[in-house]
Design brief:
Elements lengths: L9 H11 L6 H13 L6 H17 L7 H28 L5 H13 L3 H12 L8 H9 L6 H14 L7 H13 L6
Protein name: FANCE protein
GO biological process, one term: interstrand cross-link repair
Pfam families: FA_FANCE
Length: about 190
């Protein structure tokens, strides 16, 4: 485990993850492993954290058909507490690309936005959601972002408002979309004209 705190090239780290079978290890071990990761000094590089996010969580999260176990949720939240940016780039991007309903993945994204992610990572999630075609499945994620009432950079807020304006005809009968627009107008009333 001490190897993790030293610079490893990407194939070495991926090889180590494969050797340790991290993508399929039992979830209680996953929680302990994440605790060890958080204690490492120096911190993992962005690239190493992204590789570990993929190896530890990607398969598990994308295969969810019911709410994550308490062990998986504990591992996810502990990893997010320190490495939320690489986590979002790997996991949120993958969840957004998933075809179909992805109900459990959507709930998980909402929970992470509401309870775990730092403000800069919440902004990253928002920009990631706005980069894919908007669907009914993603409206709760946007609602969770707005629920945080974070100050958004003007460009990101403009992008959000523009996206909602462009998508309005497609969601003319959606109550969720109407609630989302109302939330934007309420939270950012001083910035939206």
């Amino acid at each position: 485990l001490s190897l993790m705190s030293h610079p490893l090239c990407h194939p070495q780290l991926e090889g180590l993850c494969s050797f340790l079978q991290l993508s399929t290890c039992p979830e209680p071990f996953l929680v302990r492993f994440c605790s060890w990761l958080l204690a490492l000094t120096p911190d993992l590089s962005y690239t190493s954290a992204a590789i570990l996010a993929e190896q530890l969580f990607l398969r598990r999260v994308l295969s969810l058909t019911q709410p994550p176990s308490r062990h998986l949720m504990a591992a996810l939240t502990s990893f997010c507490s320190k490495y939320s940016h690489p986590f979002c780039h790997v996991l949120v991007a993958a969840m957004l690309q998933e075809p179909g309903e992805g109900a459990e993945q959507t709930k998980l994204m909402c929970e992470l936005v509401e309870e775990c992610l730092e403000p800069h990572s919440v902004q990253l999630v928002l920009s990631q959601v706005l980069e894919v075609p908007l669907s009914e499945r993603l409206l709760p994620v946007l609602q969770a972002v707005l629920g945080r009432q974070e100050v958004l950079p003007p460009k990101l807020l403009d992008f959000l408002v523009l996206t909602l304006c462009q998508q309005a005809p497609a969601f003319a009968t959606s109550l969720s979309f109407a609630k989302l627009v109302t939330a934007v107008l309420t939270v950012y009333q001083s910035q939206v004209s």
